[in-house]
Design a protein that fits this description.
The protein contains 10 helices and 2 strands; from the N terminus they run ααββαααααααα. Helix 9 packs antiparallel against helix 10. It has about 260 residues and is mainly α. A two-stranded antiparallel sheet has the order 1-2.
Length: about 260
């Protein structure tokens, strides 16, 4: 009965997630495809994935910013993001372009974010009514919709509860020494590099608070091992982006 109830709740949650976006997009299915989503990131991502899926590889140059820059220069486009590959495939092959890639991506992030928040609430053994209220509160966070024209805002909607769930699940196990570091390194693939820095800061706060609660300095050891794993796994991307920025010509200051 318990597993059936959980399955039913998850089914309701998924349907709610889809319905929520269906209502938002009902009048205009491109209502979230505005501002920088349509002027910068959408064209770059679609062009890059057009090339990738046709076997031409990732294009080197981005013509949608300034007078052209390296396509990886800004660190925003998430061309290594596995969720973006799925979003492009759904948009172009399943939906035949009915929804833009970035809108599909935001829906996927929304559904995954709701899934992870639900899992956290289940771990806390809360009452069903409390879980419903908490889920409604989180899933209607207006801040994400206000900044939905930056598609990567929804990265936080998914990744913050995912990171929190990972910490809770591994906090009393041996996996706490390496799994959070792998998860943090994965965040670099999702787009904005600075977001990964924020996630690392949040994880550090979690681990320090856990150490204080247990009153054991050895609880800081997972913090050090996970930071080393994060640096080790992400060093290639960080060094590559740094070299791109260093090698790019300096843009002239505007004439006043």
């Amino acid at each position: 009965i318990g597993s059936g109830l959980v399955g039913s709740e998850m089914c309701i949650r998924d349907r709610y997630s889809i319905l929520f976006f269906a209502v938002i997009l009902s009048k205009n299915r491109s209502s979230l495809y505005v501002d920088d989503n349509i002027l910068q990131w959408g064209p770059v991502i679609n062009k890059a994935f057009d090339n990738i899926f046709s076997g031409k590889g990732i294009p080197y140059w981005n013509f949608y910013q300034y007078k052209g820059i390296n396509i990886f220069s800004s660190g925003y486009y998430g061309l290594l993001n596995p969720f973006m590959y799925v979003s492009y495939a759904i948009s172009h092959y399943l939906l035949n372009g009915f929804l833009e890639t970035l809108i599909v991506y935001e829906i996927i992030m929304y559904m995954l974010g709701n899934l992870m928040m639900y899992k956290i609430l289940r771990l806390l053994n809360l009452k069903r009514s409390t879980i419903i209220i908490a889920m409604l509160t989180y899933s209607t966070s207006v801040i994400f919709l206000l900044f939905s024209f930056y598609y990567f805002t929804f990265n936080n909607y998914f990744f913050m509860p995912f990171l929190m769930w990972t910490f809770i699940q591994t906090n009393s196990k041996r996996t706490r020494y390496f799994i959070p570091g792998i998860v943090l390194a994965f965040s670099l693939l999702m787009g904005p590099v600075q977001f990964s820095c924020y996630y690392v800061m949040v994880y550090c706060i979690f681990q320090v608070v856990a150490s204080v609660q247990k009153k054991k300095l050895k609880e800081l050891v997972p913090l050090m091992t996970n930071l080393m794993i994060f640096i080790g796994l992400s060093s290639g991307i960080i060094i590559g982006l740094s070299l791109i920025h260093i090698s790019e010509p300096t843009r002239p200051e505007p004439i006043s």
